Amino acid sequence: MxxxxxxxxxxxxxxxxxxxxxGAVALGYYNRRETLVIxxxxxxxxxxxxxxxxxxxxxxxxxxxxHPDDGFLGEEYGLAEGSSGFTWVVDPIDGTSxxxxxMPNWCVSIAVLSGGEPVIGVICAPCHNEIYxxxxxxxxxxxxxxxxxxxxxTIRNAVTGIGANNYVTPAFVGRIVENxxxxxGNFIRNGSGALMLAYVAAGRLVGYYEPYxxxxxxxAGYCLIKEAGGWHHPFPVEGDHLTKGAPxxxxxxxxxxxxxxIAGL
Length: 265
Prior knowledge:
Blueprint: H1 8-31, E1 39-40, E2 47-48, H2 50-66, E3 71-74, E4 78-80, E5 86-94, H3 96-100, E6 107-114, E7 117-125, E8 130-135, E9 139-142, E10 145-146, E11 160-162, H4 170-182, E12 187-188, H5 193-201, E13 207-213, H6 215-227, E14 231-232, E15 246-251, H7 256-263
Parallel strand pairs: 3-5, 11-12, 11-13
Antiparallel strand pairs: 1-2, 3-4, 5-6, 6-7, 7-8, 8-9, 9-10, 13-15, 14-15
């Protein structure tokens, strides 16, 4: 039996409303992306634009107006501590490189933490007109349809998502891919870790692994996957761990042990 978390319902409703609004704003920028000034962050593949910043500012403002004591961590502007026990963890546009290059597989990712666990996860994929929404004890949905993972799906009869970035070596990523293929699996990478985690919750992918990922990229997807009946590797959120990266692994029940072995987790 899942204990009811006081204040969860109001924040879940707010997260869904904000995701819808933020997705519409982001889509407006996407449709006029040729006017955006693109900047780089860590490297030439790590890009940002005014769209990312404006969407994050919108989400921050909506949360602050409704729950001023909540904490907030966003990819673009960092962590603001709160006192309520709730912390919002947001990637305003996950897949910015796709976004600025005119590819549709980007999303807005909104999670809420309580007691060190992601208790709300909402992911909006505006180009696909899809909203994934889940909350602790309330299940997960895609555009209102309940998500429930099929335990017969494995790495051998379904597809696994793989993520990569320059926090880890190409050789390391290559070994993971090799191990997966040798075990009889296959993989895709669409450029948005948050969206691929949503696809795990929806049963489109049987699992997702990325050796190094940030909280704003994975926590919403983690909540969705758990509520759909899947499993995820814990993400460290205590102290300054929340603002640092960690390995991310999530799976449907039939793929859990294979993927843990392949990832070494």
